[in-house]
Write a structure and sequence with these properties.
With 660 residues, this protein is of the alpha/beta class. It has 19 helices and 17 strands. Strands 6, 7, 8, 9, 10, 11 and 12 form a 7-stranded mixed beta sheet that branches. Helix 1 runs antiparallel to helix 2 and helix 1 packs across helix 3. It is elongated. The termini are far apart.
Length: 660
């Protein structure tokens, strides 16, 4: 309680004991009687007088309302025993009633005044308690804030600070009041100034939590990264009262972040380099696999080509020895042509397997494709193992890339051969099947062609089967396999809309099945093989033939002459351009794709069209694969070598008819 209100402690909160109450009321009445006697004299007696009212007031306040009423009763009793002869009897009752009413009113007012004093005392005590609680709370807050290792501050609505903790003051190393009034722009890094001022204005204007990050100069001159978080504070009535802010040093985190970024960049570079190295290694392994398989085929292919060359050379020799024997000449010509076409098919199959041909899916009769590939497969298997090709789905048509299919079958056959001991057997079958939903993992319900390769080899256990389709997984000895054969089979099957499965057990052999979705038969594929078309002569043309191989040029010149055309020959692009620049009339240009010099056939064609915009052009090449990419994106047709008079006449006819 404040010193000004200390008398309130004399007012008891509860009624005192009987003796205390009697003493207070008696003393008050005694003082009142003494005062009346002194003022009025003894002869006036103890009659009714207002001098009793102070006694009633004092008694009521300090002894309570009950003792006040007792004092009023005592005052009436004193009057009754005092001499009142000088008061007329008619006035006595009136004075008594007035005294009683005035006394009662005095008691009621006194009781109310007592209660007011008690409430004032309670309010004063509560104020003191609140003040003490506030002082304790503020002391605790300051102790807590000063013990925190982060900067803390409190601002008013005008942005000025009204509190700062020890860490805040220590960061600046200035007196407390100077820290309160300090302008942080003085130590803000110049590069962060504009950004922070803009973000601060936006954050304070929003009256919501906002965060700032900037570099501030510490008292020792070192710039430190400080992240500040400002939280709005509200008064008891809900009005905005300012912000409470904290700031903590994130310099080490920033350095770690920069170090991590550098590490990530370095790691990304190393990962990219590792991935590039892996891709190169994978490509090298794939090439090695192809080279390994092609190498295994070399002996058989060389044997086939020697047989074919024996037929061609022998037939030509016999025709040269007996030029007048027409019947023998016709037989030898047919034999030589047949051997040459067999060599062409063998070359195409070998190029397809080694991925040197453009790959395009098309409707294919798989059984017919297997029959064509059978000689090459037999050469890959060798003579120690029996190969049986037993297709049974003659009418089944599948939309696939023939080259990829042949490569997949070749991989399966080579794997089967390596797993099969001498005297064993490999069997290739085809079967039309209808697959139900979820019958085969990863395969939707539908109509499929199953291409199965069985072998009587060592077989595989469950763990090996589970990993067999993984790239680079192999059970062969080091240097004997790349682990890419079955992965190519699986990838081809999935890309073709199908799936691949393995059924095997140790010592029971293996069966690998490719399920390929069947399609409706292609009408063009159903047509019976047409007889060799007769060479049809078209209008006589003047053809510019550009060919660097003299023997090929001589042969094509003869074929063009046979078709009734006049030929002008050039050995390379520069010679052909010289002919065109000279103004020589030319109706058509037939040019090889790859020639000596700095211009290819495509570049020659572009120059020729620039010189003569309406000049028909045919490109020709014996190359395959990537070399033909430039030719495939031109408006000119590509005639693939080897070709005969029929193909040449057809290409010229199609081109000239399109021009007309």
């Amino acid at each position: 309680m404040t010193p000004a209100l200390w008398p309130l402690r004399l007012v008891p909160r509860r009624s005192p004991s009987f003796l205390t109450g009697l003493g207070i009321s008696g003393a008050a009445l005694a003082v009142a009687v003494a005062a009346r006697l002194i003022i009025l004299g003894v002869d006036k007696g103890l009659g009714f007088s207002v001098t009793y009212f102070p006694a009633l007031i004092v008694t009521t306040i300090f002894a309570g309302p009950r003792w006040g009423w007792a004092s009023l009763a005592a005052a009436v009793g004193l009057h009754l025993i005092s001499p009142n002869g000088f008061i007329a009897a008619s006035d006595y009752l009136g004075l008594l009633a007035l005294f009683l009413i005035s006394g009662a009113a005095t008691l009621i007012v006194s009781a109310a005044f007592r209660n007011a004093l008690l409430r004032l005392e309670d309010a004063a005590a509560a104020q003191v308690a609140v003040q003490r609680t506030l002082e304790v709370t503020e002391s605790r807050f300051r102790t807590l804030a000063d013990s925190a290792p982060i900067l803390m501050w409190v601002t008013r609505t005008d942005g000025k600070r009204e509190f700062a903790n020890k860490a805040y003051v220590d960061f600046l190393n200035v007196p407390y009041q100077e820290a309160i009034d300090f302008d942080w722009r003085r130590v803000l890094h110049p590069d962060d100034m504009a950004r922070i001022l803009q973000e601060q204005v936006v954050g304070e204007g929003s009256r919501q939590l906002f965060t700032l990050e900037a570099r501030y100069r510490r008292y020792d001159g070192e710039y430190r990264w400080i992240r500040s978080v400002s939280q709005p504070r509200w008064g008891p009535d809900g009005s905005f009262a300012g912000f409470v802010g904290v700031g903590y040093d994130i310099s080490e985190a920033k350095r770690a972040q920069e170090d991590l970024k550098r590490i990530n960049d370095l790691l990304a570079e190393r990962v990219e380099a590792a991935l590039t190295e892996r891709d190169e290694a994978e490509a090298a392994l794939q090439r090695a696999q192809k080279l390994e398989a092609v190498g295994q085929l070399t002996g058989g292919v060389a044997h086939d080509f020697n047989n074919l060359l024996t037929v061609v050379i022998g037939a030509l020799d016999l025709m040269q020895r007996h030029p007048d024997d027409a019947a023998r000449r016709e037989r030898m010509i047919e034999a030589a042509q047949g051997a040459a076409r067999r060599g062409e098919r063998l070359t195409q199959q070998l190029l397809a397997f080694s991925r040197r041909q453009a790959l395009k899916p098309e409707p294919v009769h798989v059984d017919a494709l297997l029959k064509d590939a059978e000689p090459l497969l037999r050469r890959a298997v060798g003579e120690a193992v029996t190969l049986i090709v037993a297709p049974s789905a003659r009418d089944a048509v599948v939309h696939l890339d023939p080259s990829q299919f042949e490569a997949a079958v070749m991989n399966l056959v080579v794997n089967a051969r390596d797993a099969t001991p001498a005297g064993g057997m490999i069997r290739i079958e085809t079967l039309c099947v209808d697959v139900k939903d979820r019958q085969i993992e990863g395969l939707e319900a539908g109509h499929y062609l199953c291409v199965a390769v069985h072998d009587t080899g060592a077989g595989m256990d469950a763990d090996t089967i589970a990993r067999a389709f993984e790239p680079f997984f192999t059970t062969k000895a080091p240097g004997r396999g790349t682990g890419l054969g079955l992965s190519q089979v699986y990838g081809f099957a999935r890309q073709s809309g199908g799936a691949a499965t393995i059924d095997s057990a140790p010592a029971k052999g293996s069966t690998v099945c490719m399920y390929l979705p069947r399609i409706a038969a292609d009408p063009a594929s159903e047509a019976a093989p047409a007889e060799a078309a007769k060479v049809q002569r078209g209008p006589k043309l003047k053809v510019l033939l550009v060919e660097d191989d003299a023997q090929v040029a001589e042969l094509v010149d003869a074929m063009l002459g046979e078709l009734g055309h006049e030929v002008i020959r050039g050995e390379h692009a520069e010679a052909a351009l010289a002919i065109l620049n000279a103004g020589e009339p030319v109706d058509l240009m037939l040019t090889d794709l790859i020639m000596p010099g700095d211009k290819s056939g495509v570049e020659l064609a572009r120059e020729a069209v620039r010189l003569r915009p309406r000049l028909p052009i045919i490109l020709s090449s014996g190359y395959t694969g990537e070399v033909l990419t430039a030719a495939e994106h031109t408006p000119w047709p590509l005639l693939r070598k080897p070709y005969g008079p029929e193909q040449l006449a057809s290409a010229i006819a199609e081109l000239t008819s399109a021009k007309t």
